[in-house]
Amino acid sequence: MSTAHDGLPPLSEDDVYRLCGPTVYQRAQRYYRNGAVLRPRIEDAALLAEVQGSRRKPYQVSVTFAPDQIVSSCDCPYWAEHCKHVGALLLTWAHDHAIQRALASSCRAAAATGGPDRPSRGIAAA
Ligand SMILES: [Zn+2]
Exposure winner among 7, 48, 91, 119, fewest CB in 10 A? Predict the structure, then answer.
């Protein structure tokens, strides 16, 4: 039995604000709106993406959802805990439920090798 997001919890914009603080949050919003978050995906229960920053090569960003905390990493020189690149990825996750569904289902499909993809709309199996 798999849950909706295979252990990756939904996140609200408020959550991202609390996690990142006002300054990083504002910058993250700009990155998110500019489409700087490239190829968001799930691997091994971590949320991964490349985020296009000021440098030509995009930064590698990953976010892991532990039970009580969100652990992030980014290869930019400013990364301390949650930098703006991490924030932009979190905003992508928070905003885009289509991405959440696509990621969750691709994650499920990868986990359940061989099985046909069952529709997941009905909560109660009649
Ligand atoms: Zn960064």
Answer: 119
Ligand 1 midpoint to CA 60 (Å): 8
Q: Among the listed ranges 9-23, 60-74, 107-121, which one has the minimum average pLDDT value?
A: 107-121
> Does residue 76 lie within any of the structural domains?
yes
Q: Which residues contact 21 (CB under 8 A, 6 or more apart)?
A: none
Count of structural domains within the chain: 1
Q: How far from 11 is each of 93, 97, 109, CA to CA, in Å?
A: 7, 10, 22
- Does any domain span residue 95? yes
Whether the pLDDT of residue 58 is over 80: the answer is yes
Residue 119 inside a domain? The answer is no
Give the Å distance between the CA of 59 and the centre of ligand 1: 7
Distance between Cα 6 and ligand 1 center (Å): 26
The string of pLDDT tens digits covering residues 31-57 is 999 999 999 988 887 899 999 988 899
Q: Is 3 inside a domain boundary?
A: no
Q: What's the CA-to-centroid distance between 43 and ligand 1, angstroms? A: 19
Locate 123 and state its tokens. 């909560």
